[in-house]
Amino acid sequence: MIELGLSRISSLLQQTPLSWKAIHIAGTNGKGSISAYLSHMLTAGGVRCGRFTSPHLIDRWDCITIGERVVQESLFRQIEEKVRLRDQTLGIGASEFELLTATAFEIFNHEHVEVGVVEVGMGGRLDATNVLSDVLVSVIAKIGLDHQAFLGDSLEQISREKAGILKPGVPCVADGTNAPEVLKTLEDRIEELKINAIYADPDAISAQSPSLGLVFKELDLQRHQRANMSCAVSALRLALSKIRPGLEVDTLIPSLSHVEWPGRLQKIVLRSLTTRKEPVLLDGAHNSQSAEVLGEYVDHKLRPQGSITWVIAASRGKDATALFHSIIKPGDRVAITAFGPVDGMPWVKAADSEELAACVQSIPEIGDVKIFGGDILAAISWACIEAGGGPLVIAGSLYLVSDVHRLLREARRSAESTQGAV
After folding, report:
1. Helices of type H across 303-346
2. pLDDT in tens, the chain (422 residues)
3. Residue 21: beta bridge partners?
4. Scanning 126, 180, 299, 330, which has its CA 20 to 30 A from the CA of 132?
5. Domains 6-258 and 266-420 agree in fold
6. Which stretches does DSSP call E strand in 245-404?
7. Residue 54: CB partners within 8 Å, gap ≥ 6?
8. Residues near 116 by beta carbon (within 8 Å), at least 6 away in sequence
9. Which CATH architecture has domain 6-258?
10. Where are the domains positioned within the chain?
């Protein structure tokens, strides 16, 4: 169950003041990428950095990193147990996300982190992460329609909630490629707080920073990727001016060429699961805005090779038409599946496969559509056969991405176990 508000997280952390400074990131899309870019550059610059993002990819603790390494499971469980005991003793009744947030923040304390890069879970104003007080810079990524039941039905309402992380005296960076109504809402709040703001435009920022322009060219990035990277670089300049005034950001930018963000336009090989040798595109697009980005990439990079074979799932409550009708085209083939239970997030459920199939089948001249329920491996196997050597995309949910990574890990462990027994 999702319960927004700051009273419970404040009670959880009242006895343990945070010993580190934060970079706080809100938005609908791009938060995770910006977090990864910032954490990577800070670590490359010798700053002891923690990162907290959500949801987790495979294990609950992999959403917390120290120096770009996932926190040890033993430490996570030790501090999580301490936080849960405090919650029970004080009768706070914290939500799972609040317990996780408190655990991450206490791990940062324990590990003597200097800067914590913290991604908002949902919204901003009432999100548990907004308990942060010692913030170096606030970042607002791309904002779109998502979680309307909690945040509002319009871009203006959602933007006001996201802008709730902005604080007096704390500079902010906003993605300058946001819609005009988003930018106007952010500008009003920034003016009200009288804080310094940078509206990150990838073309302007890369022109000012030749090293960033080189990374853009080297990686052949899409516009949203350039915007995310520009936000991260702009935020880092502001943060370093307060903690490492002598450290030049331009010397850290080349390290961005090596950042990987699993589940976002990620190319993977499924050889341990199927006989397919060609790479597969894995993307966690789960709302209309991220689907639009995925669709642009697929149309530009993959469709010239032929029609697309898809493996899709979605969370219950998502607008499947907005999510899939913009990316799945006539002639495409589609395997419908459902992700499994999400550890620590029992309220998250997969959309009904029959309903998803009906949505996809309403696309004119759609190719074969087959339902596999919760058998993700069977869905992938069918899709690999249908695709032959042609393009194959797995998308629709970050939780589907997680399950695919989990299947790959299990297959790898099984193969290693078999080899060890020989």
Report:
1. 320-324
2. 566 678 899 999 998 889 999 999 999 989 999 999 999 999 999 999 999 998 889 999 999 999 999 999 999 999 999 999 999 999 999 999 999 999 999 999 999 999 999 999 988 889 999 999 999 999 999 998 765 656 767 888 999 999 999 999 999 999 999 999 999 999 999 999 999 999 999 998 888 888 999 999 888 888 888 999 999 999 999 999 999 998 999 999 999 988 887 888 899 999 889 989 999 999 998 788 888 889 999 999 999 999 999 999 999 988 899 899 989 999 999 999 999 998 878 888 999 999 999 999 999 999 999 999 999 999 999 999 999 999 999 999 999 999 999 999 998 888 777 766 55
3. 115
4. 180
5. no
6. 266-268, 280-282, 309-312, 333-336, 369-371, 392-395
7. 63, 97, 100, 119, 121
8. 18, 20, 21, 22, 23, 49, 50, 51, 52, 105, 108
9. 3-Layer(aba) Sandwich (3.40)
10. 6-258, 266-420
Bridge partners for 138 per DSSP: 24, 172
Tracing tokens 């596999």 back to the chain, one arrives at 372
Provide the CB-side half-sphere exposure for 140 (13 A, CA): 35
- Find, among 308, 362, 317, 315, the residue nearest to 335 by Cα: 308
Strand arrangement of the beta sheet that strand 21-26 belongs to: 69-70, 64-66, 49-52, 115-119, 21-26, 135-140, 172-175, 197-200
- Do residues 141 and 176 make contact, with C-beta atoms less than 8 angstroms apart? no
Asked whether the beta carbons of 26 and 162 are under 8 A apart, the reply is yes
pTM: 0.89
Topology, domain 266-420? Protein-Tyrosine Phosphatase; Chain A (3.90.190)
- Partnered with residue 347 across adjacent β-strands are none
DSSP 105-164: HHHHHHTT-SEEEEE-SSSSTTSGGGG--SEEEEEE-B--S--HHHH-SSHHHHHHHHGG
| 347 in Cβ contact with 316 (< 8 Å) | no
| C-alpha to C-alpha distance for 338 and 336, rounded to whole angstroms | 7
Q: Which residues pair with 23 in a beta bridge?
A: 117, 137
